[in-house]
UniProtKB/TrEMBL annotation:
Keywords in alphabetical order: Amino-acid biosynthesis, Isomerase, Methionine biosynthesis
Name of the protein: Methylthioribose-1-phosphate isomerase
HAMAP family the UniProt entry points to: Salvage_MtnA (MF_01678)
Sites annotated Transition state stabilizer: 164
Residues forming the catalytic site: 244
Annotated InterPro entries: IF-2B-related, IF-M1Pi, IF_2B-like_C, Initiation_fac_2B_a/b/d, M1Pi_N, NagB/RpiA_transferase-like
EC number(s) on file: 5.3.1.23
Family: Belongs to the EIF-2B alpha/beta/delta subunits family. MtnA subfamily.
GO BP terms: L-methionine salvage from methylthioadenosine
SUPFAM superfamilies cross-referenced by the UniProt entry: NagB/RpiA/CoA transferase-like (SSF100950)
PANTHER family the record matches: METHYLTHIORIBOSE-1-PHOSPHATE ISOMERASE
Sample GO molecular function, one term: S-methyl-5-thioribose-1-phosphate isomerase activity
Pathway(s) this gene product operates in, as recorded in its UniProt entry: Amino-acid biosynthesis; L-methionine biosynthesis via salvage pathway; L-methionine from S-methyl-5-thio-alpha-D-ribose 1-phosphate: step 1/6
Amino acid sequence: MNVNGRKYRTIWLADDGWGVEIIDQTRFPHAFETIRLETLEQAAHAIRIMQVRGAPLIGATAAYGLCLALRNDTSDMGLMTACGALLDTRPTAVNLRWALDLMRKTLLPVPPEQRLARAYGMAERICDEDVAINMAIGTHGAKLISEVAARKRPGEPVNILTHCNAGWLATVDWGTATAPIYMSHDAGTPVHVWVDETRPRNQGAFLTAWELGQHGVPHTVVADNAGGHLMQHGEVDMVIVGTDRTTAEGDVCNKIGTYLKALAAKDCGVPFYVALPSPTIDFTLSNGLREIPIEERIGDEVSHITGLTAGGRIETIEIVAPGSDVANPAFDVTPARLVTGLITERGVLSADRQSLAAAFPERVAG
């Protein structure tokens, strides 16, 4: 995607051919900075503190983190130890496990002296395939937006509500939930995006709004609790969100607050779509509420907020009454019954086991 006229991915190989460079997403929206990763520890740290975030990008970063680890130790033990360290960084997004499983299965049969080159090749392939998947999601999702646009008055925008950041910053490029929006906008379909702020980390206000602005897509940031009101008054034509893990039955795990949007959409008759890249499907799980591990993050994310002062300084301040206990579950689960459709790289599917298994039989087989 474009940043100030320059094309970027969110992660790329440095010019020296072995270092890995990323966009530091903890600096948004007031600064755009890139950093270089040279070690396994740096890659794991970047995932843990959310310098990179979003299920697809976490998986890509883990793949490159494994490459960095193999620069020091290509043995079986070194490979397995590095996989374990990366897997421990974030528990909810299944792409992390998927990418590491793919890397491990690819590399273990290879002689240790050949593993490093093979690892870099596989990491690059994971990134390129993510871009292709997101472009396909964009194509299928744009058709849904076009169908809504055809029922509206000429020039009237399709109003889309999204939650968290499932944009190109959450993937290698294009994004999942935003890919249909970008493609529709580029094709001349009028669109407008209601951007949930997405407390507590404000990924909507900080990230989604920033990247939509860079691309020239009309958008409005709203408080998380405004979505139901907008739907009640007919100001939302459709909801499109992303997902960090989806069960075989179609239950969807996404950023905390997604479930509430799905409930409001159901009550108001607003279509609720989930942009679903196939690596986020976990066919080993059936019941999302019982089986998906929900990450509990540090309370500081709720009790403090970072922003730009009137004097131009970036500062972090406390916003919660001193002495109050703080809980910070990072995700919730939306049951399949509330999902209108899953926008995948192989088409728009019903949120059920039969549809998912028929579309992705190779994933069911493991």
